[in-house]
TrEMBL record:
Signal peptide: none annotated. Residues 1-10, 99-110 have a biased composition (Basic and acidic residues). Transmembrane segments: none annotated. It comes from Nocardiopsis eucommiae. This is MGMT family protein. Keywords: DNA damage. The keyword Plastid does not apply.
Length: 116
């Protein structure tokens, strides 16, 4: 079986991806450009785990999916990734707060529905 989530350099290709990880990564892959979900939103959508479990998945496997579309509940990207995330947000016209360091969650949050 071909792994649908290729690993980034440094990730252990021999480690199997479990069902929860697959579900989380699948949700992240479906977030439309210019939209975001919080770690907690994804856990709620998947129906199990919590923000920390989603964060753990993203920390280990998120390099192969649009990781910048997963943010903290206040709209901040993962620690240490603001500069890289900003370039993606600009390219995708993601709504930002006036400060420019957080996504505007009221405008950019995606609920997992078919409409962007």
């Amino acid at each position: 079986m071909v792994d649908p989530h290729p690993r980034e350099p440094g990730e252990d290709a021999s480690e199997p991806v479990d069902e929860y990880t697959e579900e989380v990564l699948s949700v992240v892959e479906r977030i439309p450009p210019g939209r975001v979900m919080s770690y907690g939103d994804i856990a709620e959508y998947v129906g199990r785990g919590g923000p920390r479990q989603v964060g753990s998945v993203m920390s280990r496997w998120g390099g192969a999916v649009p990781w910048w579309r997963v943010v903290r509940s206040d709209g901040r990207p993962a620690e240490g990734h603001l500069v890289r995330a900003r370039s993606h947000y600009a390219a995708e016209a993601t709504p930002m707060r006036p400060s420019g360091d957080r996504v505007d969650m009221r405008e950019a949050r995606w609920d997992g529905g078919s409409g962007a």
